[in-house]
Design brief:
heterodimer; A: alpha/beta; nine-stranded mixed sheet; about 30% strand; elongated; B: 12 strands; globular
Chain lengths: ~325, ~250
């Protein structure tokens, strides 16, 4: 059986999640199976050294396309699968993967399970554990093969970046397919970290939906100042315009690993945990004792957020002496 | 431009979720249902496009409590509102819903279909890419800005880590909205009362067009790992303990 691992990257770099997808694919392979990494972009990104334990790399290349849009990515992958056959396709839960997974499943008429945390292969089917309702429920699913799986980042450890010899790399020219696309990238905005770089911060105070309103963020900002921490927010806070995008932690924001991460009124949706779960010390405050943030926190409290911020700020005031 | 907006009512998962006796669903009897947050943003982007281009906006809604949501959509500026039928305990699978949306998009000569990037019930895939692939229309998910440009659109997508990409998109197209170009607007009570007179159309569901799908063998509530050492419910005590923890780890005040 051929098992495809969808990989991503741009500007000569391969995203870390690519090696996780290769590890997921490898975990499903039996003797005689092929794990094939699929990449689409402007260059195969130093391919020989960056595609882990894959048996082969199929690199769909358009020299001018730093970003290959998901529709084109999915279409080319389906063409490769039609030519070579496949039993399983694993796709990362990412901006690109969200479009690719369902698109491939629809085009091939294959089953799909999203938000996958665990996979076990059993003959001609898979047993899959996936998240529902923002991770508050787990679904045990039976998946007939062939199938597509959209896998959560962090569900598999990164595969070792074993070099691939050139004879195991197949390059496909997709310049014509890219040119024919009805979606064309016209600009890429890269973050300007001159104001704040959360990835470099040693201490972060993050506010979530539980902060209630924009004015209350000032209380958290005061607390952060006393701790020498950067203020950050979860997606709802940034979507409401209460904090700028560069201060968002999570899947569509920054991935951080500070020495201290204080989560105030953050529920801990999987997308948020992906961005901060590796912090050295996590202190979470949320009135819901079942909030998923407590599953990754080292210390938790269910007290009133505003009373705590006030009391904590008082205790952290510099002494006069 | 004809815009079709898809709204889904989903269980409010903020509180405690209980499973049904057979373990195959969640007990919905005492749950509140709310508009999928991302769909709210999709609606706002559709109304903003209407204001910019004079587009017609048709809103399709499914799930418990759709009438209330459709009246809200009308108050915000939707031209036509339609409710789709739904089983009482149905998990709203985008995989199943896609055929209905495709049928509606064709029947109404839609130029643009917009919905939320995902919903909490999207276990078997996301709506926008399903619909896009089935119609063979371009599709982009995770959008945070949509603007009319010439006969098409300029659409910005969040790629993570602060990186955004703006695309030129030829219509017809399908978009999965993450964040609207502007925050969803507030609707006054008087507008809502006026919109309550808006007739709500009734649509029909189409059977799923897929041959094989994954199936749920059972649902379970994840075990609480208990990794967090609980500091309590009293703010004063919690503050005192946090200060002690920080100081003992050398990360007290600066």
């Amino acid at each position: 059986m051929k098992i495809y691992a969808c990989t991503e990257g741009r500007s000569g770099q391969v995203d870390a999640v690519s090696l996780e997808m290769i590890a997921a694919a490898r975990s499903l392979a039996r003797d005689g199976d092929d794990v094939i990494a699929f990449f689409a972009g402007s260059a195969a990104a130093d391919a020989a050294g960056k595609f882990g334990t894959a048996d082969r790399l199929v690199a769909a290349i358009a020299p001018e396309a730093d970003i290959v849009v998901a529709g084109t990515y999915a279409r080319q992958l389906c063409d490769v699968i039609a030519a070579e056959g496949a039993g399983i396709v694993v796709v990362p839960y990412s901006a690109n993967g969200l479009d690719v997974a369902s698109s491939v499943a629809a085009r091939l008429d294959w089953p799909l399970v999203s938000y996958v945390e665990k996979i076990a292969r059993d003959g001609q089917s898979l047993s899959v554990v996936a998240q529902l309702y923002g991770g508050k429920v787990l679904a045990d699913c039976s998946v007939p093969l062939p199938a597509v799986l959209m896998v959560n980042p962090g569900a598999f450890a990164e595969a070792t970046a074993t070099p691939l010899s050139p004879d195991r790399i197949d390059t496909i020219d997709i310049a014509e397919l890219v040119a024919a696309s009805r979606v064309r990238p016209i600009s890429i905005d890269l973050p300007d970290f001159s104001d704040v770089d959360l990835k470099a911060a040693e201490r972060i105070v993050c506010v979530g939906r539980g902060i209630g309103d924009e004015a209350s963020i000032d209380l958290a900002r005061d607390l952060a100042a006393l701790l020498g921490a950067e203020i950050a927010g979860s997606r709802p806070v940034v979507d409401n315009g209460w904090l700028p995008k560069l201060r968002q932690v999570g899947k569509s924001g920054q991935k951080v690993k500070p020495k201290l991460y204080m989560a105030l009124g953050v529920s801990g949706a999987p997308e948020h945990l992906e961005g901060m779960g590796q912090s050295d010390m996590i202190i979470a405050v949320n009135t819901d004792p079942k909030a998923p943030i407590f599953n990754v926190a080292h210390y938790g409290a269910t007290c009133d957020l505003f009373e705590l911020m006030s009391s904590l700020s008082e205790r952290l005031q510099p002494s006069d002496t | 431009m004809n815009i079709l907006v898809i709204l889904r009512m989903v269980p409010d998962a903020a509180g405690e979720l209980l499973l049904t006796g057979d373990g195959l669903g969640i007990d919905r009897e005492w749950l509140d249902f709310q508009l999928n947050d991302f769909d709210d943003h999709a609606l706002e982007d559709a109304i903003l496009l209407k204001e910019a281009t004079g587009a017609k906006v048709t809103v399709i809604a499914i799930g418990e409590g759709t009438n209330r949501i459709l009246q809200m959509a009308a108050a915000r500026g939707a031209d036509e509102v339609i409710a789709l039928p739904c089983e009482e305990d149905e998990l709203l699978s985008s995989r199943d819903l896609a055929a209905t949306v495709v049928d509606l998009a064709r029947a109404r000569s839609a130029d643009l279909v917009v919905c939320g990037v995902q919903s909490s019930e999207d276990l078997f895939g996301q709506l926008a890419p399903y619909v896009g692939a089935m119609l063979d229309w371009p599709h982009i998910s995770g959008t945070n800005r949509i603007e009319a440009s010439g006969g098409g659109l300029h659409v910005t997508q969040e790629r993570g880590a602060g990186v955004s990409v703006t695309y030129e998109v030829v219509l017809p197209a399908v978009l999965g909205v993450q964040t609207a170009t502007k925050a969803p607007r507030y609707v006054s009570g008087s507008k809502l009362r006026e919109a309550s007179k808006t007739p709500i159309g009734r649509g029909e569901r189409q059977a799923s067009s897929f041959t094989l799908s994954a199936s749920i063998e059972g649902l379970r509530i994840p075990e609480e790992t208990g990794s967090a050492q609980q500091l309590g419910e009293d703010a004063e005590n919690v503050a005192e303990r946090i200060v002690a923890i920080l100081e003992s780890n050398g990360i007290g005040r600066r």
